[in-house]
Amino acid sequence: MPYVAKFSTPFRAAEAFFDRCAGLGQFTESRIHDPAILGLACKIRYEIDPENEHPANFTGHLRAILHDGTVHELTQNHMRGESLAPLPDGDLERKFVDTALPGGWSKPTVERARVWRTKMFDVGAVAAVTSFRR
Fold first, then answer.
1. In this structure, is residue 102 part of a structural domain?
2. Residues 70, 56: Cα–Cα separation, whole Å
């Protein structure tokens, strides 16, 4: 069931609303049964824009209609992390950690990789990458 949640746009949007992120760490049995997330996910609809630039560019548009009829909209002209909006080093590092831990790496291994990244172009550092094999 957590696998299916990864590909549910309403679930991912609701999860991101509550958690302010939607990383691999959110995919647990308890999270996919969270009544608050499921309640909001049931209210989310989406449409695929036939004029979207995908795959040349990843864009997005969000429209939220509140109970009182107020409409809030947000347009994203390109995806964060792509060439038009590269991630700052700190964000990239957080993304790595948020992916590696749920992916099964231990905290010490993640820390070794984080330190290695800062020196990866030093002579001899390339050979050290084999230490991350499982």
1. yes
2. 33
pTM (whole model) above 0.90: no
Alpha-carbon span 18 to 68, nearest angstrom: 21
The half-sphere exposure of 32 on its side-chain side, counting CA atoms within 13 A, is 13
- Tens of pLDDT, residue by residue over 32-68, are 889 999 999 999 998 888 888 888 888 888 899 999 9
Alpha carbon 2 to its chain's center: 15
Are 10 and 72 found together in one domain? yes
Residue 82 inside a domain? The answer is no
- Count H helices, E strands: the chain? 7, 2
What is the pLDDT of the chain when averaged over all its residues? 85
Residue 125's pLDDT band, with cuts at 50, 70 and 90, is low
Q: How far apart are the first and last CA of the chain?
A: 26
